[in-house]
Structure formats: C-alpha cells, structure tokens
Specification:
Blueprint: E1 12-15, H1 18-38, E2 47-51, H2 54-68, E3 74-78, H3 79-87, E4 95-96, H4 101-111, H5 118-121, H6 132-140, H7 148-155, H8 160-182, E5 185-186, H9 188-201, E6 210-214, H10 221-233, E7 237-241, H11 248-251, H12 255-265, E8 267-269, E9 277-283, H13 286-302, E10 310-314, H14 318-330, E11 335-337, H15 349-361, H16 367-374, H17 378-384, H18 407-422, H19 429-440, H20 451-464, H21 473-483, E12 499-503, E13 512-518, H22 537-543, H23 556-568, E14 571-579, H24 593-597, E15 600-601, H25 607-613, H26 618-634, H27 641-652, H28 671-679, H29 681-689, H30 707-724, H31 749-761
Parallel strand pairs: 1-7, 1-8, 2-3, 2-6, 4-5, 6-7, 9-14, 9-15, 10-12, 10-13, 11-12, 13-14
C-alpha cells in the first residue's frame, strides 16, 4: 500500500455528520471555481464527484446548483456510472450479466447436488435463491480460483459438516464465475476489477482535473479497491462522515475504509456544522405517529419551509407507505419518493404477480391464479369459483354443466396448461412470448392493459441474453420474475417535488431543513440482524486472512448505530418518533438507539393531544388555532402555535353531555371485520371499538396446548403402535379398500405411556 507522504496535504477529510460533509464539498467546489478563473485551460477536464447512489447524485447536483450557482465542468456521477465509463472503450471488457446471476447460481448449485447443498437448501422456501446473497458476498470480496485451496484448508479447522458445506459454497462461487466467463459476461465484481486494472495501467483513462469521493462509509471488496485505486492513481480526495465523533460504537462501521484511505492520503478533520435541534415524540400507535408527523409537516410548510427541504424517513418505509401517503394526500401536501421508488400498486400489478406464479408453477398452477392473470369478468369468475382451487393439469378438457357460462375461459386455461407442460424441457423464444401473452389474454379497448409493457420487457430481455443460452421452464420463469419486478407498479408520489418519503438507505448522506424519522421501535430500527445460514460469521472470520473484505453479518449492528447517528445530524431540526403500542394494542418497546442519540423529548403537543385533535377536520383545526392565536394577541397574551394546538386538541375531547359521532377510521373496513360484527356485535364492540385486550397469562399459570400439537402427538403415537405390530406406517389411499383388516395386541398401559412420551418429545 502507498503510504501518505510526510508534509503533503491530507486528502481524507473526516466530517461530523452529513451537514458538515456537504459544507466541505461545497467549499471544495468553490475553491475549484476560483482556481478555474486563474487557469481557464483546466476546464477541459471535469471535476468529478463520485457518490455511491443515484439519490445522492441527484441531491448533490441540486445542492451544487443552489449553493454555487453556475459551475463549469463539474460532473457528479455514481460509482457504477464511473465503472461503465472506464470500460466503454475497452474491447476486452465483458458485458454486464448481473440479470443472469440468479439463474447461474441455481444451475451451478444443482450441478453440485450431493456435495453439501441439498440438505441445507431443503429448509428454505425459495430454494437455491437463498444462496444468492452468500455467493454474491464471496464474489464481491474478490474470491478467485487461486484462493480455493487456501480457503478450503482454513475451513478444515471447523467441524467436518460445516467445512464440507462451506467448501461446496466456494465451488458454487467458482462455478458461477466460470459460467459468466463462458457466456462472455461478467459479474459486477468482475467489471469493477477490470475497471481498476485499466485505471492502474493508464491513469489517463479517466480524464479529470480532480476527483472527490463523497458519501462512502463502507464498500464491498471490489468497490473499496476501486476507491483506493482512485486515491492512488487519480489523486482523489475522500470526504468521510463520522457523525458522532468520540463514539467508537458509531465510528467502528466506517473505520475499515477510513483507515485504508488515511493510510494512502493522510487525514484531517473538517469544521463542524452548526448545532442542530434533535427532538423526539411518542405516539400511542403507528397511525397516531403518522398523523402527528403529517401535522408537524403541515406546520413547517405554513412557516415557510420549502417542501423539498422536508423529509419523512423510516428504516423500512413499507409499513408506513399506505397510511403516510393517504394522510399527506388528505392534508393536500405534495410528496415524492426516491428516484425509482415504487408505490407497489398499479392498475395491473396483481396480474403481473399472478403471471409470475403461472410461469413458476406451469401446468400445476391453480385455476384462480390463471383467472387473476387473465383478470376475467367477475360474473364469470363467480361461475368458476367451485373449481378455482383445482390445478390446471387436473381440469377436464370440457367444463362441467354448471360451469358452461365460463366455457371459453375454461378451454383457454386448459390450452395454457398443455402448452406449459410441453415447455418443461426446452421452448423457442417465440413459444415463451406466446405462452405469456396467452395467459394475459387479448387486449381490451379503453383499458390500461399490461400486454404492451410485457412485450417490450421481453424484447429487452431477448436482446440482453447471450447467444447459445438455452432456457428451460424454470429458467425462463426465474428471468421473467427478475425483469418484471417493477411492471405494473406506480411511482411513489410525484416526480421529485414536494416532501421526500425515503427509507433510511435512500436518505443516506442527504441533508434537509426538517427531518422526521418514523418507527424508532425495537423491532423496526435497528433492524433484526440475521446470521448467514450457509456461511456463518465464525466461518467468515476464518476466511478473513485470505478475503479481508468478506462481510461479517454481525457488523450490521454497527451499521444501524452509524445510520441512526447520521440521521441525527442530517437536518437543521430532526424529530425521532415512535409508538408505545401497535395497532392491536400490544406493547411496542422503543428503540435502544434512542439511548445513544438522547433526543430532547417534546412536552407539547403531546401524542395524545395530536391524536385527539385529529377528530377535528384538518382545516377546521387549523382555523381554530389561527383564531386562538389572534384572540390571545388582542388580549395581550403571547401564545405559541404549539400551545394553541394543544389547547384546541383538549377542547375537542369534551362532549358537553352528548356522545359525539365517531371519527372516520384511518384503516379500511375489511370483510373479516364485517363477519365479526355479524357473528357477535358485543364482542366486536369490546374488541375492535373499545380495543379491550384479554388479560395476559400470569407467570405462574400452566401453559395450554395447541390442539394441532395434540393431534400430531396422537398420530405419531398411533404410527408407533402400528409399527410395533408390523403394520405399514404409510398406505396409498386408493388401496385402503382392498387391504384386509389386521388384528394386533394393543400395548399395555406402561408401554403406551412410553410411546406417548416419546411422541410428545419428538
């Protein structure tokens, strides 16, 4: 490794949070602009700002335009875009084959069946798909054939079963790399390695008057090597974020990359950003948490904060997506998700999901899946409901008399089943396209139909496939599932304007004037860290001397602390919120990360006041608050907006001797709720309206048994009794009528007790 020369200016700048890092970047852009005025000839080459994500690229571009005005030759690009640029003129560079990665992992793993793979995979619902993250980790860490023998030798120090399974994983990784090479393609790690070799051989491959690495805290092995290569061969500067200086439990996440960069280019600390306000609020339930956040956003907008400077962030946005979008729409607040973020809904999203299931199951798919993909008329679906659970291959060619009204759909389903059965081995590309479009049915005028989008996506897939790659039914279903993931989904909110709705990952490195972080509860943020079932951390640590960039899953805890600390410094005012109970009334412990951040708790408006005030329509509540403040000013009394809101909320709780009408619930009223109401109105009222919960079992009470557990125990005992008498444990159902009855001696009480005890313990 090239060490930092004594006396040279350090090129690794450590900043205390995203706002400090952004200020340092803006100062670097301004210094570059001043240097260009003195030497205009340098503008021929761009100043490159390399960032890790698309969302950060768009954000940095907007910040530079806002803070610096017109700048010449500044190019903000993601690391993946830089790799593509480096490889653009290389004739030996292989095409990106990332879309084939799931297919190649499955094929190679199947070929190695019996070498430790099948036993592990039998526990996983998605089969060989569960292997993909492990193989990706190995390839990203730079695992090559020359590493195999040494890695296998180190694995021999562990138990034989673990070592054999891990050795099989190494063989799969090598097989996938070889399969990519045979097809003339490369995994993403291979393309990054090729880009680095070109940069090392000829630094002028990357014309630049300067390179700034911005927003990187951690990177895979291949990515980290490219970043370090840019610092060695392109004199790149790195702006690193240490959001909580002096806290080793936070700094440990970025420490490996930071240490390597500092070893090449030295290190200095940047000026800290102005102190910000970090506060917290507690709501009763997640729905109340969303309402409180939307009300706070509305107040910030009324105070003149630009919508694009406000963000609502959650570790995982999915649990809040629907309620948050609904609340913002009702309040008339514009919003947008991250670039490319999807709302997971659309006019024919359900049809695409059903189509993927049809391709995966083929002729063994259920009739209801085929009807969902076709989106058959409701009156015909009702006719075919009695047979909807049947597999397509089991349906007769002609429908029963009771299903004659849906005869055309029935025959189409049978035709699809026969074509799918023929496609099990090999099928021409035209055959696959015809099979998919036949499942969707003809296009109907005056409606948004998925056929054009599906046809276009299949054409793109066909152009990307290498020559000579044959596809079976499972292969095609797997590829189509990958390329159709976003079909039928709508963008989340607008096209970039308005309040930002982001996951924590999407918000990484971004800055805001006002930031609201939802879901600071124990099971949500931090997320649950699960060890890799195939290559556990002890085995990974054993491989670190050979693959130092192999990720350790336990470091996920460090990442959660780092992300939380980074969010706390990402806004001029940051509000963390959590709910004391879930929507079912169960206790919802708050996140331990709040102990690290120690935000100032807001006393007013309280979560209870916000929830109570939500019984009033938003416009009426806002008008009352304005009137309250005006009346207070006339009386010469200073009243803050928060105090006025709390007073109005308390007033809304009073009934003045009458029962007020119930507020419209935030949640839709499902069919199961209607069934519960009809079955027992009193129980529905107590459980759903009053939200009364059954008393928790006292610690000393005896546990109850699930009836299914008792049934399983009885069946095992009966099988054991029969086995002792020499009777078969399994018998084909069709042969039972022809099997003669057999007599045997029933075991005595002591033997029966032993059998029952053994069955219960298993």
């Amino acid at each position: 490794m090239t060490s930092h020369a004594a006396g040279a200016e350090p090129r690794t700048i450590v900043c205390a949070g995203p706002r400090s890092a952004e200020a340092e970047l803006i100062r670097a852009i301004q210094r570059d602009r001043e240097a260009l005025r003195r030497a205009p000839s340098q503008s021929v080459k761009p100043l490159r700002v390399i960032v890790p994500s698309r969302s950060l690229r768009i954000h940095v571009t907007a910040r530079i335009a806002d803070r610096c005005g017109s700048v010449l030759g500044v190019r903000v690009q993601s690391l993946s875009a830089l790799v593509e640029e480096l490889l653009a003129g290389d004739e030996d560079a292989r095409r990106d084959g990332e879309f084939l990665f799931p297919l190649l992992v499955r094929r190679v793993a199947e070929a190695l069946e019996g070498q430790g793979m099948r036993e592990d995979l039998s526990r996983f619902e998605d089969g060989y798909g569960a292997l993909q993250p492990t193989i990706a980790d190995l390839l990203d860490a730079g695992f090559h054939p020359e590493h195999f023998d040494a890695c296998a030798e180190r694995l021999a120090n562990f138990g034989r079963a673990d070592a054999d399974a891990a050795r099989a994983l190494l063989q799969v990784a090598l097989g996938v790399r070889a399969a990519f090479a045979k097809l003339g393609l490369a995994h993403r790690s291979g393309r990054i390695e090729r880009a680095l070799s070109l940069l090392e051989a000829e630094p002028e491959t990357l014309p630049a008057r300067g390179v700034i690495l911005y927003g990187f805290a951690d990177a895979t092995g291949a990515q980290a090597n490219l970043l370090l290569g840019l610092m060695r061969h392109a004199e790149a500067r790195a702006i690193i974020d240490d959001p909580r200086p002096g806290a080793p439990e936070v700094a440990s996440f970025a420490a490996p990359l930071r240490t390597r960069m500092a070893g090449i280019a030295g290190e200095r600390k940047a000026d800290p950003a102005p102190r910000n306000a970090v506060v917290s609020i507690e709501a009763e339930k997640p729905s109340g948490e969303v309402r409180a956040t939307v009300d706070a956003v509305a107040r910030e907008l009324a105070a003149g904060v630009a919508p694009e400077e406000i963000a609502v962030v959650a570790r995982d946005l999915d649990p809040y997506r629907v309620s948050l979008c609904r609340a913002l729409e009702r309040a008339g607040i514009p919003f947008s998700g991250a670039p490319g973020a999807l709302a997971r809904s659309g006019p024919w999203r359900r049809r695409i999901r059903a189509l993927r299931d049809l391709l995966a199951e083929g002729s063994r798919a259920r009739l209801f899946t085929w009807l969902a993909a076709r989106e058959a008329p409701a009156e015909l679906v009702r006719v075919l409901v009695p047979w909807s659970g049947n597999r397509l291959c089991d349906l007769p060619d002609e429908p029963p008399r009771a299903a004659r009204a849906g005869a055309a759909l029935w025959r189409d389903a049978r035709t699809f089943s026969k074509k799918a059965a023929r496609a099990v081995d090999r099928f021409s590309w035209g055959g696959w396209v015809e099979l998919i479009l036949s499942a969707l049915g003809p296009e109907r005028e005056g409606r948004q139909e998925p056929q054009p989008a599906v046809r276009s996506r299949l054409e793109e897939l066909q152009r990307a496939l290498p020559e000579g790659l044959e596809l079976g039914a499972e292969d095609f279903a797997l590829l189509f599932a990958g390329v159709s993931e976003d079909l039928g989904a709508c963008p989340l909110g607008g096209a970039g304007g308005g309040v930002r709705l982001l996951s924590v990952t999407e918000a990484r490195g971004l800055t805001f004037a006002r930031l609201f972080v939802l879901g600071m509860n124990r099971e949500l943020f931090p997320r649950q860290i699960r060890e890799d079932a195939f290559l556990p951390d002890p085995l990974r640590r054993g491989l670190l001397p050979l693959l130092p960039d192999l990720p350790i899953k336990e470091r996920g805890h460090d990442e959660e602390r780092y992300l939380a600390a980074q969010l706390a410094q990402a806004g001029d005012r940051v509000t963390f919120s959590w709910s004391a109970f879930d929507e079912e009334g169960r206790a919802n412990p708050r996140s331990p990360l709040l102990e690290l951040l120690q935000p100032r708790a807001l006393a007013a408006p309280s979560a209870a006041a916000v929830d109570a005030g939500s019984a009033l329509p938003a416009r009426q509540r806002d008008a009352l608050i304005v009137a309250f403040e005006a009346a207070a000013r006339e009386l010469g009394v200073e009243v803050s907006g928060e105090r006025a809101a709390a007073h109005i909320a308390r007033s809304a709780e009073r009934s003045f001797g009458r029962v007020p009408p119930p507020p419209i619930p935030e949640e839709p009223f499902y069919v199961t709720g209607l069934e519960g109401l009809l079955r027992c109105p009193w129980r529905f009222y107590v459980g759903r309206i009053l939200e009364a919960q059954p008393q928790e079992r006292s610690p000393g009470a005896l546990p109850s048994f699930d009836p299914r557990v008792i049934g399983n125990c009885v069946h095992r005992a009966l099988e054991a009794v029969g086995a002792r008498a020499g009777l078969p444990a399994r018998e084909a159902f069709g042969t039972l009528a022809e099997t003669p009855a057999a007599e045997f001696a029933w075991p005595d009480a002591k033997a029966l007790d032993a059998i029952l005890l053994e069955a219960a313990e298993t």
